[in-house]
Amino acid sequence: MDNVFPEGYKKMFVSSFGESAWEAYLSAYIEPYTRGMRIHPLRKVAFPFTLGTSIPWAANAYFVSQAFKIGNDPLHAAGCLYLQEPTAMAPVTVLAPVQGENILDLCAAPGGKTTQIGALMENTGFLLANDPHPARAEALAENIERWGLSHTAVANVEPKRLSRSYRAFFDGILVDAPCSGEGLFRREPEATAHWSLENLMKNAMRQLEILEEAYQMLKPGGRLVYSTCTFNPIENELVCAKFAMAHPDLQLLPIALPEMDAALSPTQLKRAGQAHPLIQDVLDTMPSNWDAVPTHHAGRFFPHHAKGEGHFIARFIKQHSAVSFNKAKPDRITSAKNRTLKTDFESFAKEFFINDWLEQLKNISTLLTIGDTLYALTEGAQLIHPLLRPGLALMRMEHEHAVPHHSLALSLRSENVQQELRLHYGDGRILEYLRGQTIPCDNLSGWVLITIDGAPLGWGKAVNGVVKNHYPKGLRRSYGFASID
Q1: Burial class (CB within 10 angstroms; exposed 0-12, middle 13-18, buried 19+) of 284
Q2: Strand partners for 36
Q3: Do residues 83 and 36 make contact, with C-beta atoms less than 8 angstroms apart?
Q4: Residue 429 has pLDDT above 80, yes or no
Q5: Is 229 a residue of the active site?
Q6: Catalytic annotation, pick one of 80, 107, 229, 240
Q7: Burial class (CB within 10 angstroms; exposed 0-12, middle 13-18, buried 19+) of 94
Q8: Buried b (16+ CB within 10 A) or exposed e, 379-395
């Protein structure tokens, strides 16, 4: 079994955690990997299948079997659930975002942790999700749209670019840093080919650079959670120790979650250094008093101790101090010359929405046309330009006609709208709609919100007993019901 891993990986693991831990890890490695699912707490649907055993370290989360093909279910398209590796849900639990805060998910793609944060914030405050890689940022924006996160913006820039605009701005920051991915080896064995001691050091340097920018964006009194899906102390405890030593106003707080092991203490790190020259080389670069950092306050999930693939998590708080930060002047967002969209949307809203929905939106957002799309921007989104997703897209121009945006549909609830075509789980019209086909309807005319038991799927336009399909062409495909009771 040892020969499936690079020899250097085994040596690093044994030097850090011991021979018995390695044997336990190998025993777990041959078992099937574990899958998890989170449900959207704001999507009030009755699930037609058994949710499974609750995941003890995350809210609204359940273990699911590999045989359960829920990713192709219409409830997935409606943003009612998200498939996610179970231990990857723990960092957001540790961050503990609450309603009304300003939160940053700095390395956010593909969006599992962002959607988890947004659900806990219940579409209040301001959530900024960033990923510097364009393709990954697009996937991130799609998942945010699917979950109907109306107070969430998406950036596609390097962290240093963000820190110029958001000095001491965020109440909480999650840095789920790029890493060597040792916790992915069971699920993606081919990832072992990219493992090397040289890459561990490169990753650690990059992680420290990202953390430094995160520090600049964190308010005094704010909290920062650092996490990786890897095991080695080079990218975990030693990164945390260096980061804490560089910023005396940071305090590393203890974490206690079910099935989580304490991270290595300074004493254990010194012992690991005696067993592995690279660990010792890093320790030799540390200030003499580095061992005052309580690295054991961080925690680690192992696949042989927890029902999951593995994660490292550390939680810092920035102490209130006399240090002051000068907030950067906001970048100027310039809107397009075409401002008719705002008027068109207000007319649409008065006809389609119930009561004072539009006024409530205006009270918490700025309506701004950017390019061919009208957005609702919360305050934090106006500090940087351009953003891949500056806010909730409300309406766009399509062939010289103003049409409501798909993002708007997915942010709505049944009680917000005048016209809803409510389809029930198992209804074949749901599958037809998601394939882009027209579907029949009675007693409806004009724009209609299509829902599955109240959870939004998208727009349709009812004309003469038929709903013309406005589900985005890029999302259309064949779905199937995972379970029909």
Answers
A1: exposed
A2: 63
A3: yes
A4: yes
A5: yes
A6: 229
A7: buried
A8: ebbbbbeebbbbbbbbb
Number of Cβ within a 10 Å radius of residue 258: 11
Look at domain 2-31+84-318 and name its CATH class: alpha beta
The DSSP symbol for 434 reads H
Task: Find the angle CA(303)-CA(304)-CA(307) to the nearest 5 degrees.
Answer: 55
HSE value, Cβ hemisphere, 13 Å, CA-based, for 68: 16
Split at pLDDT 50, 70, 90, the class of 28 is: very high
* Beta-bridge mates of residue 152: 127
All residues at 6 or more sequence positions from 384 whose CB lies less than 8 Å from its CB, including other chains: 155, 157, 161, 162, 165, 166, 330, 331
Beta bridge partners of 417: 353
The tokens 């953003």 sit on which residue?
Answer: 387
Q: Report the pLDDT value the prediction gives residue 1, as an integer from 0 to 100.
A: 60
Residue 224 near residue 215, CB atoms below 8 Å = yes
| Cα–Cα distance, 25 to 177 (Å, whole number) | 23
Q: What is the pLDDT of residue 2?
A: 63
Residues contacting residue 19 through CB under 8 Å, at least 6 positions apart: none
- What is the rounded distance in angstroms from the CA atom of residue 219 to the CA atom of residue 445? 50
Kindly report the number of other CB atoms within 10 A of residue 472's CB atom: 15
Q: Residue 448 is encoded by which pair of tokens?
A: 């209609």
Q: Are 77 and 434 in contact (CB under 8 A)?
A: yes
Residue type (1 letter), 334: T
Q: What is the C-alpha separation between 422 and 431, in angstroms, rounded?
A: 14
Q: Give the whole-angstrom CA distance, residue 396 versus residue 406.
A: 10
Give pLDDT tens digits for 286-330: 999 999 999 999 999 999 999 999 999 999 999 976 444 444 444
One DSSP character per residue, 199-212 reads HHHHHHHHHHHHHH
Q: Which residue reads 């309807």 in tokens?
A: 441
Average pLDDT, integer, range 429-448: 95
Residue 12's alpha-carbon distances to 50, 361, 397, in angstroms, are 41, 53, 56
Whether 461 contacts 404, CB under 8 Å: no
Q: 40, 121 in Cβ contact below 8 A?
A: no
Instruction: Measure the CA–CA gap between 22 and 13, rounded to whole angstroms.
Output: 7
User: Residue 306 CA to chain centroid, in angstroms?
Assistant: 22
Residues with Cβ within 8 Å of residue 203, at least 6 apart in sequence: 177, 178, 179, 180, 234, 235
The residue ranges of every structural domain in the chain are 2-31+84-318, 329-411
CA nearest 345: which of 392, 276, 279, 307?
392
- Rounded-to-integer distance, Cα 297 and Cα 252, Å: 7
